């Protein structure tokens, strides 16, 4: 005999027995206890009361009532999300920002152009790669003079210096003055490499200045498109040039 039965027998009360589980429903688990039914019932009545309160609130609501969340909320995956307000910019403000952008790009382009002029003044573009070679034309009277023509003799310089486009002294100058500057092959090679690097830098700056000029033109075109004047696109925008529009003529007051 269990302790519960002995206690119930001493007190004269009828012992409590769990209700038997039918064999057909034994796979569903044990039956709920009395307190489980009470908790489930309380939860059900609580939800019903909340629904009745919401229904009453909806019936009492004015259908013409308006609040701002009606236009600032949208449904996403069944959840109401508040739309984030976008920054409002007037056309005048957009024009001003375009003007500031143009001024900045133009300032950088002018600075780049000054650097280009400084490099050109130092290098003179005498032996830059890709530069069209200068032509020196000599005029002779007869074919015999053409056959016997010697360019080193005509220029009064050494044959080794004929191919140089700069610093090509004459024989008289070489006899009177001593040769100045670097003469060793290693030093000359180093100077040639430095000169080549300077020309490469000049080429990069020229390309950058051209790119900034194109960017400034494109920004100016976008600024002009903000006007409400009727316009027709004449040429599409490319990487090297902005789009071209033809605007309707309007007489200024």
From TrEMBL:
One of the GO BP terms on file: rRNA processing
Gene label: Utp11
Compartments where located: Nucleus, Nucleolus
Region (Disordered): 1-27
Biased composition (Basic residues): 7-17
A Pfam family it matches: Utp11
Gene Ontology cellular-component terms listed: small-subunit processome
Source taxon at top rank: Eukaryota
Presence of the UniProt keyword rRNA processing in the record: yes
Keyword 4Fe-4S: no
Similarity-based family: Belongs to the UTP11 family.
Keywords (A to Z) from UniProt: Nucleus, rRNA processing
Broad class of where this protein is predominantly found: nucleus
Protein name per Swiss-Prot or TrEMBL: Probable U3 small nucleolar RNA-associated protein 11
């Amino acid at each position: 005999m269990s302790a519960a039965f002995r206690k119930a027998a001493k007190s004269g009360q009828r012992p409590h027995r769990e209700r038997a589980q039918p064999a057909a429903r034994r796979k569903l688990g044990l039956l709920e206890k009395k307190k489980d039914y009470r908790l489930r019932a309380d939860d059900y009545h609580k939800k019903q009361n909340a629904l009745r309160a919401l229904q009453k609130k909806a019936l009492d609501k004015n259908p013409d009532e308006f609040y701002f969340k009606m236009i600032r909320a949208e449904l996403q995956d069944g959840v109401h999300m508040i739309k984030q307000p976008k920054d409002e910019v007037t056309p005048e403000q957009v024009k001003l920002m375009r003007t500031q952008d143009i001024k900045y790009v133009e300032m950088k382009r002018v600075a780049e152009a000054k650097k280009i002029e400084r490099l050109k003044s130092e290098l003179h573009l005498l032996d830059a790669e890709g530069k069209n070679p200068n032509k020196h034309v000599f005029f002779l009277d007869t074919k015999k003079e053409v056959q016997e023509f010697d360019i080193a003799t005509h220029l009064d310089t050494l044959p080794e210096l004929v191919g140089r486009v700069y610093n090509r002294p004459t024989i008289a100058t070489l006899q009177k003055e001593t040769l100045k500057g670097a003469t060793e092959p290693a030093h000359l090679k180093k100077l040639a490499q430095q000169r080549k690097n300077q020309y490469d830098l000049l080429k990069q700056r020229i390309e950058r200045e051209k790119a900034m000029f194109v960017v400034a033109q494109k920004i100016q075109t976008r600024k002009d498109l903000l006007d409400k004047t009727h316009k027709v696109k004449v040429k599409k925008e490319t990487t090297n040039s902005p789009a071209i529009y033809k605007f309707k003529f309007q007489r200024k007051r």
